[in-house]
Amino acid sequence: MDESAHESLLRAFIDMPDPRVNRTKHHYLHDILVITVCSVLAGLEHWTQIEDYGKANRAWFDTFLDLPNGIPSHDTFGRVFAALDPDEFEVRFQRWTQALAGGTKGKHIAVDGKTLRKSFERASNKVAVHMVSAWGHENHAVFAQVKVDDKSNEIPAAPKLLAMLDLTDATVTFDALHCQRETAAQIIDQGGHYVMAVKDNQPTLHADVQWAFEDAMANGFSGEHDFCERVEKGHGRIETRRCWTSGNIAWLRDRHQWPGLESICLIERQRVVGDEQSIERHYYVSSHPGRCAQRSACVIRNHWRVENELHWTLDVAFNEDACRVRVDNAAENLSRVRRIALMLLKQDKTCKLGIKSKRAKCGYDRAYLLHVLRLA
Prior knowledge:
Order of helices and strands: HHHHHHEEEHEHEHEEHEEHHHHH
CATH topology of the largest domain: Transposase Inhibitor Protein From Tn5, Chain A, domain 1
CATH architecture of the largest domain: Alpha-Beta Complex
């Protein structure tokens, strides 16, 4: 095997702390990690399949791995991933991601959570693992992710996630759950900007922003404001998206003391299908200046790429929701391996296939698998 095809992965994870005691170390940790990444790239999803893939490709793995005692058993793969420290894995995952996709400075970062639905266990009252990820659609990269505490929700996890990132000149977007003063203050303190949806979890702020736009419309937007509109036709429907932003909000800043607040935003979506018409309105607070309708409309729409390009792809192309890996840290650690595989496959521009088909191609075309590994 071409050494360059795997050396980046080895460099990134070679110093991973090994949780096993010396007498049980029959296989090197970096061998286990590389075999797992190659197996997941090749479309495999369970420890037994990973063991079988390793054995079927033993001669090939022998060309670049140590394998002092052959291919590990499926029990070994499961035990090691259950015992690995997820925080240590995350540190190396971020280091590898930055080497692959660059940093977060000046980028749009969408923060959103996803539950690994089959990772619960009734017998031990273990709840399903819920991960919060920071996704950059420009880079097709997960820059960081954290596990939500079992008896908590995403709100306390977001500050931990943001603290891992360089937010200089970056724009961070959230759904309404994360519209919190503390989160806004942290983003500003780290040199970034935010665009946050406002709903009924902040009822007074939501009501004031809604009233501000209703009053501005009634008075013809006499203060600082900006507007843009986009019309799209397709699949039998006409969709018009309008965006208004306003920086004439000194009274709102004084009333709410919201950190870094510079503008408010209204997104109106009008959809016409045949004779039926529907209109939805959504409100946002932002640290960008008031004359930024085009930028606000763009980042708000691109925020939801995290659902399509990350979460939906992990479910459909990687069967993540169906995976029943659940012992200790195994589900959380294996989720990072899937994201490594996803980012590698998204970096490849030579093959005009979907992610699921690219995984299959990695399984039957070793030259393509080597090409994907070189992207690391």
